[in-house]
Amino acid sequence: MTEKENLTPSTRIKLLLVDDEEGFVNVIANRMSKRGIDATKALSGSDALKAIRKQDFDLAVVDLKMQEMDGIELLRILKKMIPEMPVIVLTGHGSERAAEDGMEYGAYDYLTKPCEMDELMEKIHEALARGR
C-alpha cells in the first residue's frame, strides 16, 4: 500500500464526482477509493448542488456534457458558492474548446475523456497542492 492509499478517513481527499454516465461514475469512484479519495457521486448538476449543501469537498471533477445542467453552468454556480474549491472539467474528445471556455469560468484544468486514471490523480493532487 502506498502512503496515499493508507490515509485515515479524516485525512482522505473528499471529492465530488459529477457525470451523468452512471457506469463511468461508479468505476472512477471505486478506483479513487483505492487511492485515498472519498468520491461522492452525483449523476446531475442538481444532485451535485444537493451534495455540496450537505458536505464540504476538497475539489470537484465535473463532466462538461450532461443532460439537465451542463458542466459549465454547474462550474459557474460552484465557483459562486465556493470560489476556492478547485474544479477539474472532463470533456469528451472533440470538445476541448468548450473545456477551455471552462477555464475562463474558473476551472482549475480539464482532461479529455477517456483519461488515464494516473493523469486524473495527478491533476487532483496538483489542484489540491496549489490551493494549500
TrEMBL record:
Family annotation (Pfam families): Response_reg
InterPro entries the UniProt entry points to: CheY-like_superfamily, Sig_transdc_resp-reg_receiver, WalR-like
SMART domains referenced in this protein's UniProt entry, alphabetically: REC
UniProt keyword annotations, A-Z: DNA-binding, Phosphoprotein, Two-component regulatory system
Record-level GO cellular component terms: cytosol; protein-DNA complex
Annotated positions of the 4-aspartylphosphate modification: 63
Gene3D superfamilies: 3.40.50.2300
Keyword Metal-binding: no
Molecular function terms, GO-annotated: phosphorelay response regulator activity; transcription cis-regulatory region binding
Protein's GO biological process: regulation of DNA-templated transcription
Residue ranges constituting the Response regulatory domain according to the UniProt record: 14-128
The protein's name: Response regulator receiver protein
Organism field: uncultured Desulfobacterium sp
